[in-house]
Design a protein that fits this description.
Length: 239
């Protein structure tokens, strides 16, 4: 659990035409963010097996203005995240901790809800807008996995694992290009329903072999694959 208060800007150091460094007073940006995380690990042993349930909840909220120095001016970035919540549930069934042949089977569900606003403008007369983006995103995922470790001998073991994931991502986003200093009106683009709905299905694996050289030294080789679901966003460089 965290509550943070931060500040940016206030002063900037610049270089004049003679190469001399001087200090200027600039706008002060202030912000706050809150982070919460709760989890549990509940286990029960029976018939040489262990059943585990691991729930978790995490939330993030932010309301901040970040001031950054530019060449002769400053830029203000407003970041607002009223909701960024993660909920996971994981269920495992595994061999007993002392078993020579170790295995586990499990299922994991993941749900994330995000709302975010990101806006950047120049601290100049009229506060020209560089860009702004409003994002609403929902991610739902389900993973099924299994792994086993086979004792080939007292000193040599082979581990193999396999996982299947299915992930659905729904993104709604409105992006505005302010087209500053061009004399043109801002342009706003939005993701279509087809562009914002993404569906991913993927297999990943793990293979590992380890050998005990001595009671305190082990040699191993491991190879595994990973998967990160994609995202959708809209932007424009129209000028």
């Amino acid at each position: 659990m965290q509550n943070n208060h931060e500040g940016t800007g206030g002063h900037a150091w610049r270089i004049d035409g003679n190469g001399d460094i001087y200090e200027t007073e600039e706008p002060l940006g202030e912000g706050e963010n809150q982070f919460r995380q709760y989890w549990a690990n509940i286990s029960y042993s029976f018939n040489d097996m262990v059943f585990s349930y691991i729930p978790a909840y995490r939330s993030w909220e932010q309301d901040a203005e970040i001031v950054a120095a530019g060449p002769g001016f400053t830029i203000s970035q407003n970041l607002k995240t009223p909701s960024d919540k993660f909920v996971t549930h994981e269920v495992r069934l595994a061999s007993d901790y002392d078993s020579d042949f170790k295995w586990q089977l499990g299922i994991l569900s993941y749900d994330n809800e995000l709302q975010n606003t990101n806006s950047v403008s120049f601290n100049l007369p009229g506060s020209p807008l560089a860009f702004s983006a409003l994002t609403r995103k929902q991610t739902e995922a389900l993973g099924i996995f299994g792994e086993s470790t086979i004792p080939v001998s007292d000193d040599f073991r082979i581990t193999a694992g396999l996982r299947y994931d299915t992930t659905k991502v729904n993104v709604k986003q409105d992006y505005t290009d302010g087209r500053p200093f061009t004399g043109l009106d801002p342009v706003t683009l939005s993701l279509s329903e087809e562009q914002g709905n993404l569906d991913f299905k993927n297999w990943t694996y793990k293979l590992r072999a380890d050998y005990d050289l001595t009671d305190k030294n082990m040699m191993y080789v491991s190879v595994s694959s990973g998967f990160t679901p994609g995202d959708a966003s809209v932007t424009t460089d129209l000028t």
